[in-house]
Amino acid sequence: MANPAISEDPLYRLLRDGKVAEFNQRAAAGEPAGVAGCDYRHLNLQGLETSGLDFSNCYFRQTDLRGIDFSNCTTLDGASIHGAKISGVLFPKELSANEILLSLEHGTRLRYGK
Question: How far apart are CA 12 and CA 34, in angstroms?
């Protein structure tokens, strides 16, 4: 696995610039979002709509994820949430509480239960 990237994808750039509402609008209109494997360190992503998005191998260290519903994203496999704000986050049911806690406290990569 490569290090998380700061991509030139236009929708990813919106998130880096704090334009979550515009990201949501464009993604909902069907614009492809290349958000997998990206670096979201220290960003505020509150209000992000994640349905159908692939967040595999993403880096969410100290990111504000409060209130995000990840339950319908394609995957969070390989993502790290070390030190993130996760109050009110709905994670996919395939991720155990232990898996989430290990990632939050120690930075391990999230792995889906088999």
Answer: 7
pLDDT tens-digit series, residues 64-77: 999 999 999 999 99
Cβ atoms of 93 and 71 closer than 8 Å: yes
Residue keyed to tokens 């949430």: 81
Quick one: 3 exposed, middle or buried, by C-beta within 10 A (0-12, 13-18, 19+)? Answer: exposed
Residues of the chain under the 70 pLDDT cut: 1-2, 114
Residue type, 8: E
Q: Where in the sequence is the domain holding 109, given as residue range(s)? A: 1-114
**Predicted local distance difference test score (pLDDT) of residue 114:** 63
**In 3-112, which residue ranges form alpha helices assigned H by DSSP?**
10-16, 20-28, 97-106
Give the tokens for residue 114.
């088999």
Number of domains present in the structure of the chain: 1
| Distance (Å, whole) CA 38 – CA 36 | 6
